[in-house]
Structure formats: C-alpha cells, structure tokens
Amino acid sequence: MSITPEHPAALDRRTVLRRAAAVGMLATPAIGLLGACATSGSDGDNEQVAGGTKSEKNPLGVKEDAAIEVVIFNGGYGEKYATDVHEPLYKKAFPKAEVKHQATQAVSTVLQPRFASGNPPEFVNNSGEKLMDFGALVADGQLQDLTELWDAPSVDDPSKKVRDTVVPGTIEAGSFNGKPFVLYYVSTVFGIWYSGKLFKDNGWAPAKNWDEFMALLTNIKAKGITPYGYAGANAAYYQWNVILTHAAKIGGTDVLKNIDNLEDGAWKQDAVKQAAAAWAEVGAKFSDKSFEGLKHTDVQLRQNQYKVAMYPSGDWLEGEQKKDTPAGFDYQLMPVPSLSASDKLPATALRATAGEGYFVSAKSKNPKGGLEYMRQMLSTAGAKGFTEVVKAPTVVTAGSEGFAFPPGVASSQAALKAAGQDVFNLYFDGWYKELDTEARTATNELMFGRINADAFVERIQKRADAIKKDSSVTKFKR
Amino acid sequence: MRHGKYPFVIGFLFAPVALYVTFVIWPYAQAFQISMTNWRGLSAPQWVGFDNYRRLLDDGAFWKAVQHHGVLLLALPLITIAIALFFAFLLNVGGKSSGGQRQGVWGAKFYRVVFFFPQVLAVAIIAVLFQMVYRPNESGLINGVLMKFGIEPILFLVKPNLALWSIIAVLVWQAVGFYVVLFSAGMASIPGEIYEAAEMDGATKVTLFFRVTLPLLWDTLQVAWVYLGIAAFDAFAIVAVLSVDGGGPDGATTVLAMEIYRNAFVYSKYGYASAMGVALFFLTLTFAALTLRLTKRESVEY
C-alpha cells in the first residue's frame, strides 16, 4: 500500500470499518425479533364446514367428503402408525374424504404460525421437545372439547361408549379444569429400569423397601458399576419424577394433588422433604458426578454397556434404546421402593399415565373430522395396529390383549397390573412449564450435592408461589 | 453530470431500504409493541403497559444473565484481542527482516489459514464439537487423556464456577481467527519505514509492538472491541447447545438470549420475552455508543 499521507484508501478503510461496526450493532440483538411474527389475524377467518348427517356409522355427524389434515410428531413412535394404520382406517370409513398427512420433529415451529393466523390443521400429535404449550392452547380456546367423542358409541360395539373402552385415568390425564381436551393415547408406566441379565448374573434382586434398596446399591457399587444415575444435562425431570413418586408413596396421592393445585406449602409437605432427603443420599453416595454433564442418551447407552445399573424412566425406554441394547439385556422395571413401613401406599404403587398427546383444533375447518379420526384411533383395529407398529401399549383395553410385548414393556404392564388401584399421576409439569424448569434445576442441585432437601423444597415452593400470584398464567385444578 | 444524481441514488436505495424497513426496522418496532402486552403466541394480545418491565426487575434469572454479560463484556474482548494481537504480530512482523521488509515467523502463511478455520465452522457445530471436548468422562477429549493418567476428570460445564469460563474459552477460540486476520490487515498497512526507523534507534520487538504497532492499529482495535462486545451480548447458540440444562447448572451460564428463548418458546410468554429483547437492545446500543465515544482519540495519520 502506498504511503502517501492523503491517500484516500487508508481513510476509507477506517470509515468503512467504523460504519460496519455501527451496522453490526444494529443487527445483533436479532433474538429481539423472535417475538415479531405476526400477531394480527388471530381469530379464525376460517370457515368451518357444515356437518354431515348423523348415522350409526357416523355418530359424530362428519361431512363425508370434507378433507382433514393430520400432523404427526415424527419422534420415538415415528409416523408409520399414522400413515399405515389410522389414516387408512379413516379413509375406509369416509372414502370420499381426503386425508392430508404431515410429519414434523418440531411441532411448534411448524404449527405456531398456523394457529396465530387462524388456519390450524384438524388433528395434531403435539409431542416432543418442541411441543406447543397445552395450557396456553387451552386458555386460548384452540382445543376442541372432546366430551362429544368420549360419549360417542365406539367403533367396535355401538352399545359401548368410547369412554368405556379405555383404561381408567385416560380422560382425566387430558382434562383441564375438568374438561377433556387432549387424548393421551399411549399407556405409560414410570419406574426404575435395570437389566434383567445383569441382575441375574450377579444374583441381585429388585428392591421393595429402602433397606433392600440401600443394600442393593452397596452391592452394585462393590462390583465397580455405578449403581444409579440419570442425565443432568437435559433429563433432570426423570429424577424429580422419582422423588415425587416416592413422596406420593410416603404421604399418599394427595401430596401430588396439592402440588398440582399449587396449594400453599405443597412442596414443603413432609413426604416431599423425606423423599428428597432419601434420594439426595443416593445421589451423593451411589451416583456419578459426571452424569450432570451428560445427556439422557449418554446415560442410557452406559446402562446398555452395563456401566450403570439402574436408571429412572418411562416405558418408552426399551423402544428408544432398541438399537443400542445388546442381546439378552432384558429390560425390567422396578417400582420406586417404599421408604418405611408407615408409607401410605404399598410398595407396588407406581406412577402411570397415558402419554403422547393428540388434540383436535377447535378453529380448524373440519373439527368433527378430527374427532372422528380419534374415534377410529380408539377402535380395536386402530389400537392393535398402533401397538404392532410401535410395540407400545395404548390406552385401549382391547388393543393390547394377546400381544406379545418385548420384556421391558411386558414387565411394566405386569407391574401396572400388580399395582391395582394404587396408580397415580401428576400434572403440574404440563400445566406450568416454569415450575417444571425450576424443579429440574433444583433436582440437579439436590442430587449433585449442592443443596439439601430443605433448600430443595424451599426454592421450588418459592417458584410455585410466584406462579400462583402471576395473573398472566392460567391456573388449572384437579 | 451533477443533475440527475439524486433520482439515480434514490432509485438505487429504494429497494434495499424498503427491504431493511420491512425485515429489520418493522419487526423491531413490533417487538417494542409486543413487550407491552401479555401475548402468549396464539390469540390477540392484551395491552399491559409496563408490567413486563416491572416484572423484569425481580426476575433473578434476568439479573443473573445481565451479570454474565458483564463478565463476558470484559473477558471476551480482552482475552480475544490480546491473543489475536499476539498472533497477528508474530505472523506479520515477528520474524526477521529481509531487504528492509518485516517478515512473519516461519510458516506464517500456513498458520494464518489454520487460525481462520474456526471461523468457517457453524456455531452450532462448534458447540457440538466442544461437547465432545468437555465431556466429563473417559470419552471426552480432555478428560479422556486426564483419566488415562489417573487424574480425576475436570467437570468443565458442571462446576458452577468453572462453567461460564468454559463457555468463554469456546467463544474466544472461535473468535480469535477472525481478529488475527483483521489485525494482520491493519498491520500490513503500517509502513515498513517506521519499523525500520525504530529498529535503527535500537527498539526491541516488545518496544516495536507497544510503541509502533499498537498506536497505529488503534482504529482496528476499536472496531474489534465493538464487534466482540456485541458478540458478548449474544453467545446464545454456544450456551444453548453446550451448557448443561440450558444455561445451567442453576443458571450459572445463562445469557439474556437464552432467557428470551426460554420465556418465548418454553413458557409461551412472548410479551415478557419481548420485554427482555428490548432490554437487550438497549444494553447493546448503550455499550456500542459508549465504546465508540470513549475510545475516540486522534488517530495517527501516516
């Protein structure tokens, strides 16, 4: 470059750089734009199709040739069950109707703008990491009331209502303030999973009470295997689930009801504190500090490599790990052991629910079609087909009969049967996402030894109180 | 041909300005509007005035994030510029002089390319890469080696007081290459005669660096400082992908963009998230204005 002092190029470079900096400054907080998707045009400019004639084959009165659009979350269960089983069933019932199929891994990314612009699809499988907030959807009147569906005659036996063909608790699981809005379709049992082979080879037996559990943990540790662990990086809720399940067994199911209803001091109930203290000890003595930095897939893989003995999860685990599970691993479920003889619920009690949410958009063109699609899903053929494709039991009682499940699901189904009436569920995480986040963070703090049980319940209670006071959050009760 | 100049200029400007207004200015204005509502992303928003901002004042996570930006704002530019200057000096004038022309150290051309590599990679890829590097067990790049020697693994992203620095290290690693190139360009335009004269007067390499290179590079440094400062207000992608539990442990690595993301897309509180966005906007603006004002000084003409 020339060294002539007045050479304009040198000056230009400086001015250009400075101006470029100014532009960069304007361009960066781009995340501020994220809220900027159109807020206008929210209340449906969408004309709904007229109803068809009700008949025995068509109890909901669906218009025979109206199209429906089905959006499926393409996750653990894939999309094949929809394209191969449920959609053909709908087509068979209504040959003139067009069924539009779409699969996505990011439900909210795809659907949020469509809800905002008043043009939602009829039927949505709202699931996965990017699911849309059910609470917000309900508060907004976006979800179709499913009462009509539950009261409709079932496909297989017109004398039986749909609500009588599913396992108890299914409708409640998808109800908000007593109104059913969501169909949870897959039967889900939670517990602690271990390898049947590993336990058999070492002569270990699943624990029923806390003393047995402690002895088991000690034995496993002596073998050089990490006895217990969960993934702190992204799956801390697997562990708060264990703590709260334990709390319910200690203090009865009202413990969880109080938590869900945001009752004052719900988290400070003795049962929650006892459970937290018990598990904090497990975290301190029988887990591995490095798990806080691992993702759920990492820890699950370590279990498949026989490096971790016990792992808390739901019964989707076996299917999720299918590719990595060595032959003969033999997934088995053990309910969370009871703490003492004074526990309110027996050792067999467990948390089970219906999982994988589906809803019908109230503001779509053909909501009746969406309801009918659900009715077809809940037929024996629909449920059997689903179970055959994804190897998971549905909430339809007749759908799982006579099906040979893989060992893990078979063991969780057996545990569910053994639990009898002592089956419970909790809802706060779906109702109040913020409370879920706080519980996850606090669980990591507790299990990796940075706070004790008192501080654990204290901080979650504080957040629960704040949510209770927050008028912008819609509240739910059960 | 002076007449007809303005219609000509306006004709050229119209399209880009229209695009800029539609896709940049307008969404900004909308973010301000949304921040005054309780919009949850679905139905029409309701006006709540300054409620969201009032709520910001007692939001622990928000203040934690602001605090982290403070740390980033000091650490990121300082460390990056120091390292980049050092490398750039070595690459351009650190070697011996031949024929009156200052040379870089041996292999300078090769290093220049190598330093630029991280800049070519997408941020998300870098974050995933460093997941492997920092992994807290035997399959981690660093801890795998440590554990071979029987040393306890270092829990980079898990220890609350180490996590933020682990994130900063990644940001520095990623940024250094670009600033080496930027400073190299700046140094290349410094006339060789000045170095020669200084050397004749007996200046050492250290003196050369502090008395010649640094003052003549001031403008470039200023730009670098503003850029890095702005980068310090972002850091979203690295934190989102790399940190434990999304800005954890217990918010130890969270940044504003992370909190905005969480409030908008996890809690569906778009109004509140927009309020945070507006706060971030003003923070960035204030920083840039301050830096440009404070670092203003007579530049040396040559």
TrEMBL record, chain B:
Domain ABC transmembrane type-1 per the UniProt entry, residue ranges: 66-291
Q: What is this protein called?
A: Protein LplB
Instruction: Give the transmembrane ranges.
Output: 7-29, 71-93, 113-134, 162-182, 224-244, 270-292
Write the record's keywords in alphabetical order, separated by commas.
Answer: Cell membrane, Membrane, Transmembrane, Transmembrane helix, Transport
- UniProt keyword Transport present: yes
Location of this chain's protein in the cell = Cell membrane
Superkingdom of source: Bacteria
Topological relation to the membrane, as annotated? Multi-pass membrane protein
Concerning Pfam families, the annotation shows: BPD_transp_1
Species per Swiss-Prot/TrEMBL record: Micromonospora noduli
**Got a GO cellular component term for this one?**
plasma membrane
The reply to whether Cytoplasm figures as a keyword in the UniProt entry is no
Matching entries from InterPro entries are given as:
ABC_transporter_permease (IPR051393), MetI-like (IPR000515), MetI-like_sf (IPR035906)
| Biological process according to GO | transmembrane transport
Q: Which family does it belong to?
A: Belongs to the binding-protein-dependent transport system permease family.
